[in-house]
Automatic annotation (TrEMBL):
It comes from Achromobacter spanius. Keywords: Amino-acid biosynthesis, Aromatic amino acid biosynthesis, NADP, Oxidoreductase. The active site is at K71. Gene3D superfamilies: Leucine Dehydrogenase, chain A, domain 1, NAD(P)-binding Rossmann-like Domain. GO terms for molecular function: shikimate 3-dehydrogenase (NADP+) activity. Belongs to the shikimate dehydrogenase family. It catalyses: shikimate + NADP(+) = 3-dehydroshikimate + NADPH + H(+). Residues 250-280 form the SDH C-terminal domain. Pathway: Metabolic intermediate biosynthesis; chorismate biosynthesis; chorismate from D-erythrose 4-phosphate and phosphoenolpyruvate: step 4/7. This is Shikimate dehydrogenase (NADP(+)). Homodimer. Residues 122-172 form the Quinate/shikimate 5-dehydrogenase/glutamyl-tRNA reductase domain.
Amino acid sequence: MTEASPLARYAVIGNPIAHSRSPQIHALFSQQTGKPLSYERLLAPIDGFADAVAAFVAEGGQGLNVTVPFKLDAYALAAGHLSTRARLAGAVNTLTWRDGAWHGCNTDGVGLVSDLLRLGVHLSDVAVLLVGAGGAARGVLQPLAQAGCAHIHIVNRTAAKALELADAWRASGVSPQTQVTAGGLSDAARPGGWNVVINATASGLQDAAPDLPAGLYADGAAAYDMMYGARPTAFMKQAEADGAALTADGLGMLVGQAAESFFIWHGVRPDPAPVLAALREALAAGH
Ligand code: ATR
């Protein structure tokens, strides 16, 4: 007979999952806050998300981080218990088992906003260019609007998708004080430039930057890539050449979303700074 684990069980679920840094992040948060827990990687078959989650809960699992390609499956699974954030993002990255049901939230956008603020980027009353119109872009609209951005212009390689996203956002009626407009990549220019430009496209997967016009950055503007790597991304290099005063990759967003999930599960907000430093060091060392 095996004894039940005394530790609360959490995991990150995805496919592939071997690359995930979430176990390391949550282990460091656990040390920092003194909340003991177990956190593992779960590889689910592409068509086997619901079964894998059911098996996890049967073994005492209490919470899951959800990554590619299952954020929509997680949304469907928690359909009866979605946070406003999850509803507006249209996707779930944090599942919590409570009172016999899965509750879904999305912490990606909170992670982005907290990292921008950590970097000293002002979001109140600023003009933001959001590049991309997939799930990553959709997930950050509400947190950016709630942080007080005056204008968010969504541009995408397929312009129709950006227009659709902006229409859906306006129809939601959330944060009407934030002006949300849209267009194609060639419509990205703004007289005087943007204060913040965020890359939410998957172009970095091909080590490329989106095909944006030059002259996008206002004085003192920041460029943020949701992707991250051991070296500056193609988008960061493009932004620097185009005059961005600050460029950053998405490692801090990754740690920020994890910190918010940790808070949902354990009621304590860990300090992301030392964890981010440890991850940056590991990344630079090729781990
Ligand atoms: P995610 O959920 O991660 O946002 P997605 O829904 O597949 O992923 O969206 C990927 C985004 O990256 C889209 O905005 C896509 O543009 P299209 O809608 O035109 O496909 C964008 N994208 C991917 N590769 C790109 C590239 N090389 N240049 C510019 N945009 C790119």
